[in-house]
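Anyone able to model this chain together with zinc ion?
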Amino acid sequence: MKCKKCGREAIVKLRHYNLALCREHFIEFIEGRVEKAIKKFKMFKKSDKVLVAVSGGKDSVSLWHILVKLGYEADGLFIRTGKEGLIKIAERIVEENAKILERKLIKIDATEYFEGLSTGEIAKILRRPVCSICGTVRRYLMNKVAYEEGYDVVVTGHNLSDEATVLFGNILNWQIGYISRQWPYLPKTHEKFVPKAKPLVLNYEEDIRLYARVTGIKFLDTACPFSLDATTTVYKSYLTDMEKKQPGITIRFFTGFLRNKNKTFSAEEEDLKLKECKVCRYPTTEEVCSFCRLRGKVAKVVSKT
Ligand code: AMP
Ligand code: ZN
Ligand code: ZN
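re: yes, here you go
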């Protein structure tokens, strides 16, 4: 098998693009698709201060490396969602990467906002899924830190497979509101809302895994112990099955959505006006934001015990 670009021995055949590539051209190809996403969705410029939310997993760690290599001013943010176990190992890995990249790493402790409890413990006492607690806590803190530290944009490691899965689930359930708001870049809609971007949105998950392996990037190769919620896992497995039978279906499905979204869904877009949370003054669509409501609930339960 020969590399399509240079004719040397290929290390991989990307079935979804029907493309065989050598190591050098595979690396170039993946990085090129990150740059393409940044430009296509006007995510940020070389002069912008970028904050990468880094979990220690292959996606966000690879993204940080790629952005620095492409010449972006990219610092890292690690959110400690617990005190022990995997999160400690993840933190060490993220620190190692910061050293290798010679970039600043901001670390914050989410448990400080919740009476010292981890997101897992919060989920247990409130009887709610861990993923939804983690999502609320991370989204809020990413925005708060980026705003306070003067970053122009926050980027996360969500890849094509993640985004296609979310879209697939939302279409199966006709969640029009979610569908019309799904986009790889969320612009500034409030003075305290820092834009959010997903530069890996054009890259398959398995390609990022291979990229991390062939470039020797250090990452935590363990799925979150709580993993994705059950339904998301099912939707992801459907997509994986379809992809096996029809290579390229995931990228066609998702890029087709991106091309057609405005024609098809914009009329349905709900008018979500952002106001300021009465408690913390950060943007929200409600009177009190979901983070502050969560804090309130946790404080109440803890005070009773
Ligand atoms: P996940 O929902 O676990 O797939 O994570 C999605 C993205 O959120 C990751 O690619 C990271 O960019 C970010 N992220 C997840 N966990 C953390 C964390 N503990 N600290 C900072 N960023 C995180
Ligand atoms: Zn080649
Ligand atoms: Zn609030």
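Strands lie at 12-14, 19-21, 49-53, 73-80, 105-109, 153-155, 185-186, 196-197, 275-276, 283-284.
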